[in-house]
Every structure is written in structure tokens, then in C-alpha cells.
Metallophosphoesterase
Amino acid sequence: MDRRKFIKNTGKASIMMTLPLQIPTVDFLEGNVLKIGVVADVHQDIIHDAYARLRFFMDDMKERKPDFIIQLGDFALPRKQNQPFLDIWNEFDGPAYHVLGNHDMRDLGFTREQTMKWWQMQSRYYSFDKEGFHFIVLDGNDKNPAPWSGYDRYIGNEQKKWLSNDLANTYKPTIVFIHQSLENEEGIANNADIRTILEKEKLQNGKTKVIACLSGHHHTDYMKVINDIPYIQINSMSYRWVGSKYSRERFAPHIESAYPTVSSTCPYRDPLYTVITLDPEKNNLHIEGCTTAYISPSPVEIGYPSGDKMSPTITERSVNFEA
């Protein structure tokens, strides 16, 4: 691609692309193959160059013309200074869907309703059909039962009932999008209850109706299969959080001042995102790989625990399903 003029020099550290970003080029297939542009955890309010990262993604999507794009939460707070960022997203000539993340509400006193209005979301959880597939978007930010502290990460009874009914009323293979993961205790607190709902509904061939569940939130590159359903975490477009104990200043003083928590991250040099291909003839879900490097110092270089297990990568994956 000719769009490698990515991000301007930022003073202390440059995130110009000195190495090519590894995004495979996949030819469009004939038939009702479905392509989806996916990005997670851009964090416009934390990372200093989110505009450039999202612009890079959107320019690629304009070239490749997927059937729709979706962001998996922790996108941008609904404040006036972020309107140009949202405008970039809204340039896409096709359906562009949102998933609510925990940082998209409550941070800086904003509410879920304010964010939904700004994003023009009609409902905080919803579903839609495309080609021969059904897609479900969940809101993992319901209030946790007391006692609880920190960000809410729960799916309440009303949403659970809706999810059960929605799955029961479709005959199509289904993909679930949610911000927080459903496969571990650091994600949705009642994750086992939600997995039970997802596992219950079957296709006519007896196979699980849900063929995959995609999430963000954890800024990791990961897949775990539980009872035949792959739970796939899509890495952040922007960084890995390491906290104030391991903070390092990497950028010019004016950047560090304007984005005071960026020093608590290990930023990725280039934006991470993926394109998912759903091929009903081959019964295959394919996730394109994308890899970059850290803006030094990396988690290993700052001595972050388990830093060697972190990676600025979205792994190429291929998942077969029977529909």
C-alpha cells in the first residue's frame, strides 16, 4: 500500500514506519463471502496519535471496501474536542457499528447515554443480519451486584433475556461482539452464565449456533475454545497498559502534558487492526494477521512482569465451523 506515510515525528520518539506494517493482502472472493473491518481499544483520550491511527485504518477500509466495520469499545469520550476523531469513523461508506466499552462511559463524568447519543447508537445491545450470518452486539457494562468496586462488567437479567430470545429466533450461524471477554474472570463477571446461553442454541445440524465471540478490552492477542465456541480477543489498536509504576516518558513534553496517562502505556509503533473473512462455502472464519513493534522501551525493557508474554500483534487465525 502507498499509505505508509503514517504518523509525523513527535519529538522524543518517532513512530514513522521504518519497517513495513505486515497486513496481508487478500483478494476478494466471489459469492456471498463477507468481509468485516475490526478495530478495538483505540483510546482516543489516552493515546496521543489516535487520529492518525484511525485515519490509517479508514484509508485501508476505503480501499478494500469491507461489508461493514465495527469498533469493539474504548473508542472515544463524547466531548467536543473528539468530534474530528468521530468524523473520521463516520467517513466509511457503509454500515459502521459500535460496541460500548467501559472507558466510553463514566470516565470524566460522562454517561452511557451521552456516548450512545454521540455515536448515534439506537440501542446499547442489538443484532443484525448480513448475507447468511447473524451478528449480536452486547453491552458488558451493566451494574454488578453489590458489593462491587471499579468499572462495572456484567450482563444483567434484562439483557440476558433479550440475548436468549434473539438467539432462539435466528436460524443463521451467529457471531457475538462484546467489549469485555466472556472466557475469563477478568472479563464479564457472570461470564459462565452468558456462555451457557450461547451454548444452548443449536443449528439444524446440531452444531452450536454461535460460531465465534470477539472481544477487546484486555489489549491481548488470544483465543480459547470453550465447548466448541472460539473466544477471540482482538488486540488494541494503540498500546498495552502497564500502569504508573512502570511509566516512562517517550514523547515531547507538550505531548506528555496533553496526554498525561500515555506514559503509563507501552504504545505500539503502528496501528493494529484486522479484516475478518467469513466464507460460508468453505465454512471458514479467517482473521488477518497484523504485527508491529513497541515504541521503546518495551514491557520487557521496563521489567514489566510477564512482559515477555505481551505482543504488539494480532495473530492470523482460521476457524472452521459447520453451518
